[in-house]
Amino acid sequence: MAACAIRRGFLTTVSKYNKKHTHRILSIIEGSSGLEAKRPRLPCLACGLPNIQQTRFMSSRPEGKVLETVGVFEALKQHGKYETGQLFLHSVFGYRGIVLFPWHARIYDRDVIPPMSDSKPEPPGSHGSKEVKGKTHTYYQVLIDTRDCPHISQRSQTEAVTFLANHDDSRALYAIPGLDYVSHEDILPYNSTEQVPIQHELFERFLMFNPDKTPPFSARDTLKAWQEKNHPWLELSDVHRETTENIRVTVIPFYMGMRWRYCIRLENMGSEVVQLRERHWRIFSLSGTLETVRGRGVVGREPVLSKEQPAFQYSSHVSLQAPSGHMWGTFRIERTDGSHFDVRIPPFSLESNKDDKAPPAGYTF
Question: Residue ranges of the ApaG domain (predicted)?
Answer without folding.
Answer: 241-357
